[in-house]
Every structure is written in C-alpha cells, then in structure tokens.
Amino acid sequence: MKFSVQTAVLPELTREQVVAALRRHGYDGVEWRLHEEYHVKPSELREKASDIRRLVRDHGLDVSCLMGYAPLADVGLQERIAEACAVMECPRYRPGAVLYDGTRSYRDLHDETVDRLGKVIEAVAPYRVKPVIETHFGTVAPSASLAYRLVQHFDPAHVGINYDPANLVIEGHEAWQLGLELIGPYLDYVHAKNVSWVRENGVWRWRFEAMDRGQVDWREVARVLKKVGYDGWISFENFYKVPMRSRGYVGEDLTQEATASRDIDDRLAEDVAFMRACLAG
Q1: What is the dihedral angle through the alpha carbons of 155, 159, 163, 169, rounded to the nearest 10 degrees?
Q2: 124 and 130 in contact (C-beta within 8 Å)?
Q3: Are 241 and 261 in contact (CB under 8 A)?
Q4: What are the φ/ψ torsions at residue 162 (nearest 5 degrees)?
C-alpha cells in the first residue's frame, strides 16, 4: 500500500510546508484539495500545475489525487482538471457531488448522472486520467452498491470508486467484504478517517473520531482490502481534532466545534503508524 494525506486536514500549512511534513513522516504522496480557500485554487490550476508537480517531485512524493468539487455538468472544467492531473502525473481526480436531498427522484438523478459521467469520461480520456466517484453520504452514491451502480456502465480503466469506510458509517454501510467484492476492478482509491454516532440533547449525530476509537474497525477493513487484492493508495482524511475553517463535500460541518486540536506532527505520525499496524496484523 501507499500512503498520502488529503490536504483539507492540513489547513494550517502552506503547500511547501505540506510536502515537507509528509516527506518527514514517510508518506508516499499528497492528495491536493482543489478549493479557493486552500491549498490549490481551481482558478490557478493551469498556471501552477507545473510548479506544484516540481515541488512534489523535489520532496520525493507523488500526487495521488486531486480532490475537487467541480460539477459533472461542467465538462469544460472537468477537462481542465484532467489536464492539470496529466501535468502533475496524477492518475485520478474527484468530481463534484451529485446531491440527493429528496427534491428529485433517485431514478432521475441516477440516469442524469450516468449520462453526464459518460460525457466527462469521454472528455478526459485523452489525458489518461480517471474520475473517481466517492462513497459519500448525502449523494447518489452513499454506498458501495450505489456507487457501483453508477460506474458499472463504463470501463474500469476510465472511471473508479473512491471507497470511504467512515462515510459509509454515516450512510450506506454494507459488509466491508461484500461491498469491496461488488466494486471489484472499480476500486481505485481509499480514504481513511473514523467517525462515531453519539446522542446529544436527545438527537443522534455523527462526529469525527480517532482512527482507533470510531465505528470503523480499520483492522478488519485492512484485512478485507488485502483479501480482495487492493494494493493502491490509502489517503488520510482524518479531521479528528483538526482546526477546520470550512465546510465539506456536501456542505457538512467540518469544524465540529472542536475546542482542541492535535499537533500536526503528532497526527501525521500517529495516523500512518496506526494504518501500518492494521495492515501488518
């Protein structure tokens, strides 16, 4: 396995500080967040792609993914992101979410999404880059099976699934092995974080949790990942006690009103050590 970090969880650092920290702690790559706040603005992709690639290479790292928010309907923007991926020698990127909030029927959204995804795949194919659909609550792909339902129409060489077990705890959980067996060759990327459900003031809500204390049993997930033959990227998106100042993929609260934050070096060291132990077990 190879390890990277989604830079959304490093809001305190500049691009230069991000890659220096990841190199110092033995990571293999970096997953850049594409956002006007930080670390890579979509508006500067073309201008900065070569410089960013050089920066990453100079630190002995790879760009594992570009984590974007661009809507599937904007094929031109999807193509510009794919072009930047090609410059950075990054094989994948995440397009924006297709929200499911009940205002439109799932069947209509599914059909529309498949059509738009097909057009995007065709547009980005010349760059040898694939869009990856993240398993994410609040979207038309909240589970492994519904993510598979979107991508099954296409060649897995041209589209993939970003499997996020913690998101599945929030919505869409299926047995780990069942979901990964179903996804099969579309499994292209894995996010690592953890969450727990808690009851506060009579209401159930989820919150970010330490990797070893949430409801994702990462030792079990690691066992199943190895069993299905996955040996790709595991990218840490661990928001636990990170001083966030923005909202997430579907507008979720990333700040969680945290009153304390973990030291950057501590969390980078602890996360990768924990995952290495899970994989070794």
Answers
A1: -90
A2: yes
A3: yes
A4: -95, 105
pLDDT of 133 higher than 90 = yes
Whole-angstrom distance, CA of residue 228 vs CA of residue 127? 28
| Helix, coil or strand: residue 264 | helix
How far, in Å, CA of 192 to CA of 196, rounded?
Answer: 14
> Where are the domains positioned within the chain?
2-280
Rounded CA separation 225/189 (Å) = 11
Treating both helix axes as pointing N-terminal to C-terminal, what angle do 15-24 and 45-58 enclose, rounded to 10 degrees?
Answer: 30
Computed from CA positions of residues 139, 117, 189, 127, in that sequence, does the dihedral angle turn out positive or negative?
negative
CATH architecture assigned to 2-280: Alpha-Beta Barrel (3.20)
Name the band, by pLDDT with cuts 50, 70 and 90, for residue 188. very high
β-partners of residue 32 are 66
**pTM to 2 decimals?**
0.97
Token code pair at residue 109: 């959204």
Comparing CA positions, the residue from 138, 184, 181, 193 lying closest to residue 159 is 184
